[in-house]
Amino acid sequence: MRDTAGMYAGVDIGATKTLIAFECPGGEFIEQKKFSTPSGFDALIDSLREHLHTAMSELQQPLESIVIAAPGTIEGRTLRAGGNVSWSDEDILSNVGEVYGDIPAGLINDAAAAGLYEAVAGAGRGREVVLYVTIGTGIGSSIITDGTLAYDFANSEGGRLLLDWQTGATFEQIGSGQAFVDRYGHHGSQEADPDVWREYGTAVGSGLFSMITVIRPSIVVVGGSMGEHFDAYRKAVQDRVAQCAGELFTPPPIVAAEKPNTAVAHGCITRAREIAGG
Question: What is the pTM of this model?
Fold first, then answer.
């Protein structure tokens, strides 16, 4: 283990927002910079360089390691399939490396990062198998067993599960935050009608059942921007999963993430500590 007095950095690149956060030597989590995600890769890299440089200058602490999370399929240092971002096949780490220098750096799927945090220190802690599902602009998923990310499934895309063979509709197309906006004309934060939440929760429950029946997790943790509103549709989700499960199995607990909006950044920092040996 390294004797370190520096910071760990986590970067959450989302479809609409990007968050840069740090863990300081005393363990304090600092949500340092949040900005709209630029649409193009070059513009994103410029923004990351600018905000990382500014944040590090403000905090005046050496950086021990950094992990960046993005939606889509990760292969080494490259995002191969961009999920809900407009670019792919790009080496993010090399492009921003001039800011943080020669330190351990990693790239991780965003749902994998969030799931890692929630399984180790959040709503799923102490559970043997955690299925984490993030519901935001899209839907992502990860599996964590005994507090360790199942890397063989680190690029799993639960949102792409086919739920209607006739129309080709996927879980993401009927249960994501964007699907909510498309169907009801506004964001979840603006919705108060219990009938709307019941309908939406039934859709989400249908997708979750398809994952649960294969993975058989000890607990399901729901995060992302729609995870913030989970209490509004929790019962509809649970009822739908129970209905589909019938007598086949007893559904696991389905709970909201403890940190639905910052779990990705927290997970990046957890992974940053691992790769730094801290």
Answer: 0.89
Task: Tell me how far CA of residue 141 lies from CA of 100, 132, 193, 242, in angstroms.
Answer: 29, 5, 28, 21
Tell me, what DSSP letter sits at residue 125? T
Q: Is residue 2 part of a domain?
A: no
Given CA atoms 249, 255, 261, 267 in this order, what sign does their dihedral have?
Answer: negative
The tens digit of pLDDT for each residue in 61-115 reads: 889 999 999 888 888 777 776 566 667 788 888 888 777 778 899 999 999 999 9
> Which secondary-structure segment (H or E) carries 208?
helix 194-215
Question: Is the Cβ–Cβ distance between 51 and 58 less than 8 Å?
Answer: no
Domain containing residue 59: CATH number: 3.30.420.40
- Say whether both 96 and 204 belong to one domain: no
Beta strands in 150-234, from DSSP E residues, in sequence order:
162-164, 169-170, 219-223
Q: For residue 32, what are the domain limits?
A: 7-113+263-276
| 248 and 183 fall within a common domain | yes
Residue 4, token pair as written in the block: 């370190």
Q: Are residues 68 and 181 in the same domain?
A: no
Q: How far apart, in whole angstroms, are the C-alpha atoms of residue 163 and residue 41?
A: 32
Q: How far is CA 120 from CA 10, 63, 145, 205, 224, in A?
A: 16, 23, 10, 25, 17
| Of 233, 196, 4, 192, the residue nearest 103 (C-alpha) | 4
- The tokens for 272 are 């940053």
Burial per residue of 15-43, b for 16 or more beta-carbon CB atoms within 10 angstroms, e otherwise? beebbbbbbeeeeebbebbbeebbeebee
Bridge partners of residue 135, in order along the sequence:
139
Query: Number of folded domains in the chain?
Result: 2
Whether residues 17 and 76 share a domain: the answer is: yes
If asked whether residues 84 and 174 sit together in one domain, one would say no
φ, ψ at 173 (rounded to 5°)? -75, -20
Q: How far is the C-alpha of 103 from the C-alpha of 8, rounded, in Å?
A: 11
